[in-house]
């Protein structure tokens, strides 16, 4: 006898929270990060009832779960209060500013991207915790608004060209120095090949016998 298809109760309890541009900074990766931040505060079995949809968090639960729905709604609202100040993590920075991982590392190292501290998390499936730099969202917003990555790339290109010019000049000076060291030996070799004046008369006197 064929089993009856499994039915699920319609998700009739729905509440949404719009994520402001100040919170997401225009990044879907940042929106996903906010979702994960909120989910982390929820009981594990209920986490999948919250998702991000078109720039908003949506909580969906089945009819009859009113008590749990109200408790979770209050929890989500409380967690989202002040979410605009949530530190920006590396993958979000790269998406917001449209930069590469190498650029993030370089600009963090030379101080153009300013760290707001570090965060340590234990990732599922990894034995060791991971520590990484986080960033103030207002600093990242300022970098984005002023289009600083474009300016920094130009500065880096000019610096790289200058470094290549200096390296080429240093190599040329090194080659010139080696050439000058070899010149006296070459001149002595040329002198030995020249005929000696008066040699025939000297030989006739018998002084070499």
From TrEMBL:
<feature type="region of interest" description="Disordered">
    <location>
        <begin position="165"/>
        <end position="186"/>
    </location>
</feature>
<feature type="compositionally biased region" description="Basic residues">
    <location>
        <begin position="166"/>
        <end position="176"/>
    </location>
</feature>
<protein>
    <recommendedName>
        <fullName>Mlr2029 protein</fullName>
    </recommendedName>
</protein>
């Amino acid at each position: 006898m064929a089993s009856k298809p499994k039915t699920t109760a319609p998700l009739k309890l729905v509440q949404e929270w719009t994520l402001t541009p100040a919170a997401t900074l225009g990044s879907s990766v940042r929106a996903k990060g906010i979702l994960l931040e909120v989910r982390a505060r929820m009981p594990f079995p209920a986490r999948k009832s919250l998702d991000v949809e078109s720039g908003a968090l949506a909580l969906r639960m089945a009819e009859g779960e009113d008590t749990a729905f109200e408790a979770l709604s209050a929890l989500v609202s409380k967690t989202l209060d002040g979410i605009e100040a949530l530190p920006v993590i590396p993958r979000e920075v790269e998406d917001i500013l449209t930069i590469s991982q190498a650029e993030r590392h370089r600009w963090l190292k030379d101080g153009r991207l300013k760290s707001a501290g570090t965060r340590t998390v234990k990732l599922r499936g990894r034995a060791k915790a991971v520590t990484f730099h986080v960033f103030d969202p207002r600093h990242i917003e300022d970098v984005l608004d002023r289009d600083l990555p474009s300016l920094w790339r130009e500065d880096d290109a000019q610096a790289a060209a200058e470094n290549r010019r200096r390296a080429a000049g240093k190599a040329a000076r090194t080659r010139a120095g080696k050439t000058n060291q070899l010149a006296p030996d070459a001149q002595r070799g040329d002198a030995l090949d020249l005929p000696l004046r008066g040699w025939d008369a000297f030989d006739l006197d018998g002084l070499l016998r």
